Amino acid sequence: MKPLLIRGGRVIDPASRLDRTADVLLADGKVAEVGARVAAPDGAEVLDAKGCIVAPGFVDLHVHLREPGREDVETIATGARAAAAGGFTSVCAMPNTDPVTDNQAAVGFIVSQARRAGTARVYPIGAVSLGQRGEQLAEFGELVGAGAVAVSDDGRPVATAHLMRTALEYALTFGIPVIDHCEDVSLSSGGAMHEGLVSTRLGLKGIPRSAEDVIVARDLQLAELTGGHVHLAHCSTAGAVAMVRTAKSRGVRVTAEVTPHHFALTDAACAGYDTHAKMNPPLREAADVAALRDGLADGTIDCIATDHAPHHYDAKEQEFDNAPFGVVGLETALGVAMTELVEGGVLDLPALVHRLATRPAEIAHLPAGTLAKGAAGDVVVFDPAAAWTVDPARFFSKSRNTPFAGRKLKGVVRWTVVGGAVVHRAGDAPAASAGR
Amino acid sequence: MSAARLGKDLLGLEHLTADDIRLILDVAEPFKEISERAIKKVPVLRGKTIVNLFFEASTRTRISFEFAEKRLSADTVNVGSTGSSVVKGETLVDTARNLEAMRIDMVVMRHPSSGAAQFLAQRIESNVINAGDGKHEHPTQGLLDLLTIRDRRPIAGTKVCIVGDVLHSRVARSNIWGLLKLGAEVAVCGPQTLLPLGIGELGVTVFRRVEEAIEWADVLNVLRLQLERMQAGYVPSTREYYRVFGVTLERLEKAPRDLLIMHPGPMNRGVEIDSRVADGPHAVILDQVTNGVAVRMAVLYLLAGGRPELAESAKGAPER
For residues A234 and A301, what is the distance between their CA atoms, to the nearest angstrom? Predict the structure, then answer.
């Protein structure tokens, strides 16, 4: 593999406390040198990163790649390619596939499919319980041995307090986080959107904030009891942010993520019964958005994760009640975060890189998220000032279900580099056959 | 001209203006008389084809629409959810495309999902009339309720309380929008389990006890309590509901004034309403049904492009 020299960009690597104009040399798949005026070795490809940010490749702790089971809406290959287009070099695949990723063979399948795809790295997340049925613990040891980096029953909550307690305790042996989708299904059952004035007007059954908050409270108590590491997926409420903040101040081992759609949109997006605004947890209200942004700013919310959830267009072309929850997010995350958080004055660029790369890599203990010498050669180069308009027809993902279609966003990925090799260049277009 | 004014469809009352609503009620007035004739048929919609698409059981609304259509001489087809392609798994979007391909003029739809009428309207050229979508709106019911009140007193300033399961009620939502736009004072009353969050922010008063509502109101619109609400745990039993929230003669006798009693039907006698009240002198429940046909004629006429000022002469002489 020929060396790669990324020249003249603003290098931001929070893990090395680095933020200055520099060159980054990648060789043998690793970061070989970061410094001013690095000479190009013979045969090196040189990327001119002037005016761009050079950062550790982004890490997404929460994607649904749908393979095995729903290869018609996404595969590991198309999902990993979409990740690369969005500047992500590592993504963690949730286990709610068909069949469920609840055994070492299933984990191994994802690892081998990802290796074959050869773009962004894909780390499997194993199920907490067999079949995600909420009854019996999955074999965490075998899952981790095969390559899983965390466990979760995402798509649904860890079913009972007892199961959560034992999962947190058992996971201590392997040093992995237990990721929970916080939803009390007895409160959310049948709900289609946030419970509030908009759901009242639209006549849609609401999902109250408390459906999330009561499980967040449960999980924080159990993390405190057990000393286990709980990671809260897709926080959506002001209450969750406040509880995480106080739990952290008590030293509870909790980390938390927020999705771009939850910090960018409110339940008003559901007006007109737009099924692209239907996700779980649902889009909340302005006060929640403000709390989520405050949480990102002060570090209560550790990281940004997309909850990339591809669906076939037929599935979203339905009555709101009947449409599935979820939106794709890999290819819009940087643009939405740049526009809403950086332009919006919530985070500066180093903090954004921390929330998109450094911190999520730490949470799942991934060999990623830094440009320190010897680290994996996973890099994103993006132009923070370039503007673009979201056109779902140009997605590398097989699915198009985004609430951001037509949005003008700032921040364009120029190059994504994995293991020292360029896996995405601005202007790359998906094969026409991938379109749907 | 009038069609442009109401738009292509009637999906709800929330997005209509007070003038739009008054226009429909005014046009309904001359149409009332058609149903009183010996031969109840005028050629206003001759040659128009209308599909009544009912994905949910309905007796009153479906028959009322059908009479309105037939009395205006439209050609109508009824499709129910049983025995149709819906039970074979056809999606709503495919149903819509197939209707469109048959070049129909109007669709009247009842559907269990909120927003289904809008979904259909955005996908076909034909006029769409919402005959009830989930828990969202039931605009022609709202209009016929307004007409029934207006037959007896000016709507502006009248105090109307909607009693019962507002949470699951499309009738309640259409009534609230229509009444507020025409200047009525509106309240809701029921157990908090059956009142939607933030309902007060729409501009309505909330009463927790039916006695307070009765003391306040000029008109009670009593909603049906669906029996499945007990299973879902919203209220403990029909007996307790009647005891606490039932509109009974004893409660009404304590009211400072005579109240007009309305009910969209079908009634559960002895659950939300006392038979002595339903059959009493102040109940206008059957007048609502009669007005339903006239209001639906008016809506059909206006959406088909009929000019409001010509409604009287459009009726013409009875067909012979």
Answer: 10
**Angle formed at CA B137 by CA B132 and CA B143, multiple of 5 degrees:** 90
Nearest chain B residue to A321, by CA:
B113
In chain A, residues with a C-beta closer than 8 Å to the C-beta of B198 are 196-197, 200
Tell me whether residue B88 is one of the annotated catalytic residues.
yes
The Cα A243–Cα B220 span in angstroms is 45
Closest-CA residue of chain A to B13: A201
Please state the ipTM of this predicted complex. Answer: 0.92
Contacts of B107 (CB under 8 A, 6+ apart): B50, B51, B53, B99, B120, B124, B126, B127, B128, B129
φ, ψ at A27 (rounded to 5°): -145, 145
pTM above 0.90, yes or no: yes
Beta-sheet pairing, A206-207 with B185-189 = unpaired
Tens of pLDDT along A374-409? 999 999 999 999 999 999 999 999 999 999 999 999
Question: Backbone dihedral region of B307: left (phi > 0), alpha (psi from -120 to 50 degrees) or beta?
Answer: beta
CA A319 – CA B115 distance, rounded (Å): 7
Counting one residue from chain A and one from chain B, the pairs whose CB atoms sit within 8 A come to: 66
Cβ-defined contact of A203 to B93 (cutoff 8 Å):
no
Q: Are A10 and A16 in contact (CB under 8 A)?
A: no
With CA atoms as reference, the chain B residue closest to A319 would be B116
Tell me: the pLDDT tens digits for A81-121? 999 999 999 999 999 999 999 999 999 999 999 999 999 99
**Chain A residues closer than 8 Å to B116 by CB:** 319
> Given an 8 Å threshold on Cβ–Cβ distance, is B93 in contact with A318?
yes
Contact A54, A26 (CB under 8 A): no
A60 neighbors A305 (Cβ within 8 angstroms): yes
**B114 and A273: CB-CB below 8 Å?**
yes
Q: Which residues of A372-381 are buried (b: 16+ CB within 10 A; e: fewer)?
A: eeebbbbbbb
Q: Say which of B59, B82, B88, B320 is annotated catalytic.
A: B88
